[in-house]
Specification:
Length: 262
Amino acid sequence: MNGLGLLLLIPLVLLGNGLRSVIASTVFVSEGSFASFLSITVEATAAIMELLMGAVLVSLLMAPWLMRRIPARRLAVWMCLLAGGAALGLAALFRFAPPVDMRVTLVVLLFPMVGFALATLAPISQAWAGLGGPRWNKLLTGVWSVAMPLAFLVTPQLVRVIAPRHGLDTFFAGFAVVVLLLIGAILLLRTRAPEAAGEAASEQGPALMSGRLMLAALLALILFEGLTFLTSLETIRSPLVLPLASLFAASLWYLQRSWRAE
């Protein structure tokens, strides 16, 4: 690993694991701004965190399957494009302020996209921490490990400086630029090691779940997150809670049946 390769790997490993915490921290720090913008109570902004956590859980379910089938570098570029595009969408949302119903709809769509993409990028960047060889392996692993706590420490300060002066639209636009710049670093990383690592993992790792079981687990997870999102936004008294809870119970039955059929 030469000096240029190491200089490319450090930001990839750091930001690959840290950016997902930046989004979560932004919601924590800007609860009042989100509540005012979406015309909901501050307590109801917990629904946005439910969206992010749900997207992370979906990523935990699907990332191993994706990493077995798609070369790591290509998958990382796709995830950066998805996260960068969604962040630009959030920037435009805060900049142009459409009607409230459209704001809520776009938040429900864009935040899970960001969360899923960045959560999928994290295990890829963890694999890349091993590309430094014996000399730099410990350094890169340490960089990956401190990325999340560092993001939780730095992000609130950035939001408090940028949001009051320039608005959340500027913050999300800057975030999108950072994510999209990672694509350049990924393409400049002249190595086939990530793809080779992915091929080795597919041969040595445990067998993946079947497509039927994957879909059953994904359905149950999405219904559960939809239920928690609804109760966070409208409380348990919403008339939609009971039908959605019934669908969730049915999905658990289907998941159990699919599991036994394996």
